[in-house]
Amino acid sequence: MAVLELPDWMALAPALILAGTALVLFLIDSIEPHSTNRTLLSGTAVAGSLSSLAVAVWFTVAGVGAKGIENYGVIDIMNGQFVVDQLALYFMIIIAVVTALVTVASYDYLQDHTYQAEYYSLVVLAATGMSMIAASNSLVTIFIALELTSLPSYALVAILKDNRGSVEAGLKYFLIGALSSAIFVYGVSLVYGATGSLQLTRIAAVLESGDAAVGDMGGLLGLGILMLIGGIAFKTASVPFHFWAPEAYEGAPAPISAFLSSASKAAGFVLAFRVFTTAFPLEATTGIIGVDWTLVFAILAIVTMTLGNFAAATQENVKRMLAYSSIGHAGYVLIGLAALSADGGDLVMGAAMMHLLVYGFMNTGAFLFVGLAEHWGVGRTFEDYNGLAERAPFACGAMAVFMFSLAGVPPFSGFWSKYLLYTELINAAADNTVLLVLAAALVINSALSLYYYSRLVKSLWIEEPLLDRDRLAQPTGLYAAIIAAAVMTVVLLPAFGPVADAALEAAAAVVA
Amino acid sequence: MMIEALIAVALIGALVTFIAPNRIAGKLAFAISLVPVALSLWLFAAFDGSGNALLDGELAFESQAAWLEIGDHSVSWFVGLDGISLPLVVLTTILCTVAIVSSWTPIDDRESQFYGLILFIEANLIGVFSALDFFLWFVFWEAVLIPMYLLIGIWGGPRRKYAAIKFFVYTNVASLVMFGSFIALVFGLGDSVTSFALPEIATAMRNGGLDGLFGLSGPTLASVVFIGMFLGFAVKVPIVPFHTWLPDAHVEAPTPASVLLAGVLLKMGTYALLRFNFTMFPEQVEVYAIPIAAIAVISVIYGAMLALAQTDLKRIVAYSSVSSMGYVILGLVAYTTFGVGGATFQMVSHGLISGLMFMAVGVIYNATHTRMVTDMSGMADRMPIAVGILIAGAFGYMGLPLMSGFYGEFTIFFGTFGSELLSYSPLFTSLAMFGIVIVAGYLLFALQRTVFGPYRLETDYEVGRAPVHDVASMGVLLGLIILLGVAPDLIFDMITDAIDPIIGGGL
Question: Among A307, A409, A488, B381, which lies 20 to 30 A Cα-Cα from A446?
Answer without folding.
Answer: A488
